[in-house]
Amino acid sequence: MTHILLTGAGFTHNWGAWLASEAFEYLLGCPDVDEHLRRELWIDQNKGQGFESTLARLRQESAARPDRLGLVGALTTALVGMFNEMDRGLKARNFEFQSDVRYQLAPFLARFDAIFTLNQDLFLERKYRHGMPLLNPRRWSGFTSPGLAPLPAPSDYDPDHEITARRIPGCESAFHVENNIQPYFKLHGSSNWYDGAGGRMLIMGGNKTAAIRSNPLLRWYAEQFDRYLQCGDARLMIIGYSFSDHHINKSIIESTKHGLRVFLIDPRGSDILDKRRGVFKPATDELMDAVQPVLIGASRRPLTAIFDGDIVEHQRVSTFFHW
Questions:
Q1: Is the pLDDT of residue 57 over 70?
Q2: Which pLDDT does position 170 carry in this prediction?
Q3: 195: which of 141, 211, 269, 302 is 20 to 30 A away, CA to CA?
């Protein structure tokens, strides 16, 4: 049996990270966002969309209107600043919610064969990886994102350098998963990753599929996501993902034909599958039709409860590993 975890913004929200709606409100007060860009953000917000739609629209418009490039740059700078500010806040948070190791989160995470995320923050890199050899010593000796290498170390000692500066190795043959290292695939890149040309590896805005395909590492990550999900005996736990990314939904829907089973942790529980009432996608039953028959459980309670004394719910969530 292969056990896989997929996390979205709702995962780190348990420690205070911002959701998409909160990110929009951050941008309204960001110094890099002037009155003109603020108006552009409101255009999409009033349509029930969000800042990623604004970024996608401005990128598209910049092909015919070079003056829009400045707005694209300003919004990108603001978003990077948002991740940096959020990272500073998350850095000060304790990872565990209580001291009883039997009900802590880190040992729970160490039971997964692979962790995938749509998040671009650095929370797990900072808080989870250090104790890996003790969490599941028979299985893991470490935790890392495959296919990455650190940039040259700065002359002055920087304790954060190992996780805050990354680049893609020049050769794609470096893309592999080590048997004793728990893999952490950041499907949309990360706020601290750089490509070979020094550009940031952040997948935001529209047409994410094309952006992912144009990047060798992220294209390989997407392939790994499909490979894990379609292995025939896969069990996928999803924490805090709103099902608003078409390419991710497509992979999950397709994988249900290969024996995939799904467990959800979200404030809306199984109702999160119903996009007929959602604002992200047109009314459709495709997601529900595919996932409802393979749903093996759901929890509406936050991680702050499940891993902080809610023993009954912790036991129920842990049954995921017995399927």
A1: yes
A2: 65
A3: 141
DSSP assignment, residue 154?
P
Rounded Cα–Cα distance for residues 262 and 236 (Å): 5
Q: How far apart are CA 278 and CA 235, in angstroms?
A: 26
Instruction: Give the neighbor-by-neighbor strand order of the sheet with 149-150.
Output: 149-150, 166-167, 189-194, 200-202
Burial class of residue 225, CB neighbours in 10 A (0-12, 13-18, 19+): buried
Delimit the domains of the chain by residue range.
2-16+96-322, 20-91
Strand partners, 184: 115
Residue 108: both structure tokens together:
């729970």
pTM of the prediction?
0.91
Give the pLDDT of residue 274: 83
Could you tell me if 255 and 289 are in contact, meaning their C-beta atoms sit under 8 angstroms apart?
A: no
Distance CA 119, CA 86 (A): 12
Q: CA-CA distances (angstroms) from residue 22 to 16, 27, 108, 276?
A: 11, 9, 28, 23
Report the alpha-carbon angle 183-112-195, nearest 5. 20
Average pLDDT value for the chain: 88
CA–CA distance, 316 with 298 (Å, rounded to integer): 9
pLDDT in tens, 100-152: 999 999 999 999 999 999 999 999 998 997 667 677 778 898 898 998 877 76
**Residue 309 corresponds to which tokens in the numbers above?**
């004394």
